[in-house]
Write a structure and sequence with these properties.
Elements: E1 7-8, E2 11-12, E3 18-19, E4 24-25, H1 27-34, H2 41-59, E5 63-69, H3 82-92, E6 96-99, H4 110-116, H5 119-122, H6 124-127, E7 132-135, H7 152-156, H8 158-167, H9 170-177, H10 180-192, H11 195-200, H12 203-218, H13 224-246, E8 252-258, H14 259-265
Parallel strand pairs: 5-8, 6-7, 6-8
Antiparallel strand pairs: 1-2, 3-4
Helix pairs in contact: 10-12
Length: about 280
C-alpha cells in the first residue's frame, strides 16, 4: 500500500520530519503539529485515522503461494496426481485456498461444479472443509453474475464458439498447427513429472512460445478473438487475485490455477517459492 501522509491537524509536515515514502511519520512532526490550542475532537479523529492508516501499511504482509495444477492430467501422472496435490496443500497449511472457480459458483452443489470446473478445484472445499475457500475465475462478461446454463459449453460459450470456428477454417487451422509442437513437447513433462520437476523444467518456456506463436498466426484475422479472449481472461484472473490478496491481510494464501494461467500469473503475482 502507498501512503501519502502530508498533513496533520491542517499543518503540513516538513520533509525534515515526515517520510511519506515508507509510510512513517516522525515523532518530531507529530509533536510539532499536535501540541497547541484548539485540540478538538475532529483533530483527535484525524489523528487516530492517520495512525490506523500508517499501521495498516506496516501490517499487510500476506504470505502467498502460487501453484499450477494440470487438471485431467492429474489422473495419469503418477508423480503429481490428486493425492500428491492434496498432500502438498496439507503440508502448506494455508489459511485461504484460492481456486479457479467463479465467485458466483463457489457455493453451488457438487453436481453443478463437476459439470463446469476441474475436479481438483471444486474438491478443495471437501478435502479441506475447515479452510476458507475463495474463488477467482472469469469465463466472460456475458455470463458475469449469472449461473452457467445446462447447455453453456456446447451451445453458448463465446470462447468455445470462437475455437470451433477456428478449427473449421482450414487456412488458419493449418497456421495454428505450426504451433502444436510446443504443446506436444509439454505433454511428457505434465504427464510424468512431479510438481517440483515441472516447476524446474522448460514447461514455462514452451507455454510462452506456444501462445506467442498462436498470437502471431492469428493476428489480423477474425480468429484473433481467440487469443484476445485468452489474454482478457488472464488479466481478469490477475485482477481478481490481487483484490483477493489485498483483502486477506497477513494470511497464508495458496492460489491454485491451471498450468497455462500459472505461467502468465507467476510474473504478475508476488509469491513465495515452493517448496
Amino acid at each position: 500500500m502507498h501512503c501519502n501522509v502530508k498533513y496533520f491537524f491542517g499543518q503540513r509536515c516538513n520533509k525534515k520530519y515526515a517520510d511519506t515514502t515508507n509510510c512513517e511519520l516522525s515523532k518530531n512532526c507529530f509533536l510539532k503539529t499536535s501540541v497547541g490550542s484548539g485540540f478538538t475532537m475532529n483533530k483527535i479523529i484525524i489523528l487516530f485515522s492517520a495512525i490506523a492508516l500508517l499501521h495498516s501499511c506496516k501490517t499487510n504482509n500476506p504470505k502467498v503461494y502460487l501453484l499450477p495444477t494440470i487438471h485431467k492430467l492429474h489422473q495419469v501422472n503418477p508423480q503429481y496426481g490428486y493425492d500428491q496435490l492434496r498432500e502438498i496443500v496439507a503440508e502448506l497449511k494455508p489459511e485461504v485456498i484460492a481456486v479457479e472457480i467463479r465467485s458466483e459458483d463457489i457455493s453451488r452443489d457438487s453436481l453443478y461444479l463437476k459439470k463446469n470446473y476441474p475436479y481438483e478445484m471444486w474438491m478443495m472445499k471437501q478435502w479441506f472443509p475447515t479452510t476458507r475457500i475463495e474463488a477467482f475465475d472469469w469465463l466472460g462478461s456475458d455470463i458475469e453474475g449469472k449461473a452457467i446454463p445446462e447447455n453453456y459449453w456446447k451451445e453458448i460459450s463465446a470462447i468455445k464458439k470462437y475455437e470451433k470456428a477456428l478449427n473449421e477454417d482450414p487456412v488458419y487451422l493449418d497456421r495454428k498447427s505450426k504451433c502444436s509442437h510446443f504443446n506436444e513437447e509439454r505433454l511428457p513433462i505434465l504427464k510424468t513429472k512431479s510438481l517440483s520437476e515441472i516447476l524446474k523444467s522448460n514447461d514455462g518456456e514452451l507455454t510462452e512460445k506456444f501462445y506467442s506463436c498462436l498470437a502471431e498466426s492469428l493476428r489480423g484475422s477474425v480468429h484473433q478473438r481467440v487469443v484476445d479472449f485468452y489474454e482478457r481472461r488472464n488479466l481478469e484472473l490477475q485482477k481478481k487475485l490481487q483484490k483477493l490478496i489485498d483483502s486477506n491481510r497477513n494470511k497464508k494464501i495458496l492460489i491454485l490455477t491451471g498450468d497455462d494461467h500459472f505461467h502468465f500469473l507467476k510474473d504478475k503475482i508476488p509469491h513465495q517459492v515452493w517448496p
